[in-house]
Design brief:
44% of the residues lie in helices and 14% in strands. The chain is an alpha+beta fold. It starts with 14 loop residues before the first strand and ends with a helix.
Length: 77
C-alpha cells in the first residue's frame, strides 16, 4: 500500500511561495509588494506557513486577497 510522504520542503496542495506569488501578480498590471501582500493575507485570515525563511500561502486565497486589494484601490464609480 502506498502512502503519501509529508516533506517539510515541498508545499502541499496549491500553496505557493510569496516571492513567486508577487512575481506572478506583477504580470497582472496590478503589482503588489511582498510585505503588502503578506499584510493583506493576515488581515483577511489567510494562513501563512513558514518553511525555512519563506512564507507560503494558498494560491487560491492569494488571488482572492489580491483581487480585493485591487478593488479597494480602484476609483470606479
Amino acid at each position: 500500500m502506498a502512502t503519501a510522504l509529508m516533506s517539510p520542503y515541498v508545499p502541499a496542495g496549491d500553496e505557493t511561495k510569496m516571492d513567486d506569488a508577487v512575481a506572478l501578480l506583477h504580470e497582472t498590471g496590478h503589482p503588489i509588494s511582498k510585505s503588502t501582500l503578506e499584510r493583506q493575507c493576515r488581515a483577511r485570515g489567510v494562513t501563512l506557513t513558514k518553511r525555512g525563511r519563506a512564507n507560503y500561502a494558498s494560491w487560491s486565497d492569494v488571488l482572492i486577497v489580491h483581487a480585493a486589494w485591487v478593488d479597494s484601490r480602484d476609483d470606479l464609480p
